[in-house]
Design brief:
The structure holds two protein chains of two kinds. Chain A is mostly helical. Chain A has one domain: MetI-like (MetI-like fold, Orthogonal Bundle), CATH 1.10.3720.10. Chain A has twelve helices and no strands. Chain A is extended, with a radius of gyration of 28 Å. The mean pLDDT of chain B is about 80. The chains are: A mainly alpha, B mainly alpha. Chain B: Keywords: Cell membrane, Membrane, Transmembrane, Transmembrane helix, Transport.
């Protein structure tokens, strides 16, 4: 009897049992989750319908676009090897812009990230202030930074490096600071108790253990950076993007196809290498 | 005894290795600087110029005529909603066809994987620019660019989170004779939901940022206003647009964070 009581609570009620016999399904889904799912999808659908009613897309434009597609596609298929050297040069420039940006940003970020990390920052309020500044820098899309740099410095790879420097550093500082905060406070406390200065704690105590995780972050960022520099050329920051933009605006699709292939291969290779580097670092 | 001799040798090797990599880094750096004719002095003197440019020419933002910004902001939001909705629907189908444990046939999986990785690895602005050539300037190429990128991005991350799911539930259902549809409905989807929500919300955030950029190649949204203002040297207007953009992005991030906390 004692065992019966809890069981009875879970037993289906009379009506439920009847329903079971007539072949009706027994609901097994979690009520709250189901409700949430429905709410999410209803809200999304309503939002979507409202938005699509505001969107004025013309069928004529769509039709024209679709009808011009086979022509462009066939032009893209006649891939031309003529601009190969030029494109490789552009791609190399893009890679170099990414590389220089990452190197400069790493130098800046290593210094600043120790100012920001909660557990080691020498001046608390400054660290917090910097955090907000970095948040704003990170919020502005990279392309806009480059646009600003191009406006102040003129076209070229230097403007690209300058424009990329801000978002890259702020990303790296944040990632580095998170890594520093993760490392245990024991080292800091131990070194502080024997009278080490801030610089000694940072360079002798923390940095040696942080190099491997930092390298993983850097290789990840480099991978992003390469894709970013290709795009940024399209707003005038040097590298292969400039060539691609030219080919597109002069309708040279055969050359463009070659450019797309080169970009694809390079980014794919960079991704593979950076993945390998990271898995190697993780194994250590 | 053995260890004592082994340790220093190992240590010395490590040191040599470190020196080697430092030398390689220096060589790469030197090559890069020469190749792009990078002038460090000019670059360093460019930084204060840049900062002065931002603070003197760019700020303060031009607050007049605020009404003219409403429509582009709305357009950007609409782009992002429509883009996210459609790409999450199509991306989901592709993800199920692409994930190792739910793919109907390995050939389908391989072909889709190839296409997705190709589209994803060519930067998104290239596709956007190409679509502008195809469809002409306006909202349409921007939306399609968001869709192309969004579908491929979501297909990949959805497929990855489907592949990471527990095998036990699927095995149990297969053992009890469930069909393919039942398997997906009862074993995959319930486990996959949290991943689906968080990636879809993330996609929405990306789309807001992206539609701000799309305007730069003539594909509509708030970016086209920015480009216009920059081209006409109306820096006060441009900085106002950037401020609006920051507020918009932060607001959307806050909102999605709240939704995430409620759902997950």
């Amino acid at each position: 009897m004692q065992q019966g009581t809890p069981l009875q609570q879970y037993a289906p009620s009379q009506s439920g049992r009847r329903a079971g016999r007539s072949g009706k399904k027994i609901k097994i889904a979690h009520r709250k989750t189901q409700l949430q799912t429905r709410l999410f999808f209803t809200a999304a659908a309503v939002l979507f319908l409202v938005c699509i009613s505001f969107l004025d897309l013309s069928w004529k434009q769509f039709h024209q676009g679709i009808s011009s597609m086979p022509d462009i596609a066939s032009k893209l298929m006649t891939i031309s090897f003529e601009p190969f050297v030029q494109l490789v040069d552009g791609m190399l420039t893009s890679l170099i812009i990414a590389f220089l940006t990452v190197v400069l940003s790493v130098v800046i970020s290593i210094l600043l990230s120790f100012l920001i990390a909660e557990n080691i920052t020498p001046v608390k309020w400054l660290g917090r202030l910097l955090r907000y500044v970095l948040l704003i820098i990170r919020t502005i899309p990279t392309t806009i930074w480059v646009l600003l740099a191009v406006a102040s410095m003129g076209f070229g790879s230097m403007a690209g490096v300058l424009g990329l420097l801000f978002p890259t550093s702020s990303y790296l500082i944040k990632a580095f600071a998170a890594q520093i905060e993760e490392s245990s406070d024991d080292t800091i406390e131990a070194m502080r108790s024997v009278g080490a200065s801030w610089l000694q704690i940072v360079f002798k105590g923390l940095l040696p253990g942080l190099i491997l995780p930092f390298l993983a972050i850097i290789s990840f960022r480099f991978e992003m950076e390469v894709a970013e520099t290709v795009m940024l050329g399209m707003v005038g920051a040097g590298g292969i993007g400039v060539l691609l933009q030219d080919y597109i605006s002069y309708y040279e699709f055969a050359d463009l196809a070659m450019g797309i292939v080169i970009v694809f291969i390079t980014i794919f290779a960079v991704e593979l290498i950076s993945n390998r580097v990271r898995s190697k670092l993780a194994r250590r | 005894m053995y260890n004592q001799t082994a340790v220093p040798v190992h240590h010395r090797q490590k040191k040599a290795k470190r020196l080697m990599s430092l030398a390689l880094l220096a060589a790469a750096l030197a090559f890069s600087i020469i190749y792009v004719k990078f002038d460090l002095m000019e670059f360093l003197s460019g930084i204060p110029l840049f900062i002065r440019f931002i603070f003197a020419d760019f700020l303060p933002p031009n607050m007049t005529n605020m009404n003219s910004y409403v429509r582009p902001v709305l357009d950007t939001l609409i782009f992002a909603v429509v883009g996210t909705f459609i790409s999450s629907a199509i991306g989901l189908v592709i993800a199920f066809l692409m994930a190792r444990n739910t793919s109907p046939h390995p050939v389908v999986r391989l072909v889709l994987r190839g296409i997705v990785s190709f589209v994803r690895n060519v930067p998104f602005l290239v596709w956007a620019s190409l679509l502008v050539v195809i469809f002409g300037v306006g909202a349409m190429p921007g939306l399609f660019a968001l869709l192309v990128f969004g579908i491929c991005f979501l297909a990949r991350v959805y497929a990855e989170s489907i592949e990471e799911l527990d095998k036990e539930a699927t095995e149990a259902l297969t053992a009890s004779g469930a069909s393919y549809g039942q398997l997906i409905r009862h074993a995959i989807i319930p486990q996959f939901m949290p991943g689906y929500y968080s990636w879809t919300l993330f996609m929405f955030e990306i789309n807001i940022r992206a539609s701000a950029i799309l305007g730069l190649v003539g594909a509509g949204g708030i970016g086209s206003n920015l480009k216009q203002a920059m081209d006409l040297f109306q820096y006060g207007r441009a900085s106002m647009i950037i401020v609006i953009l920051i507020v918009l992005i932060l607001a959307v991030e806050f909102l999605t964070q709240k939704i995430r906390e409620r759902i997950l």
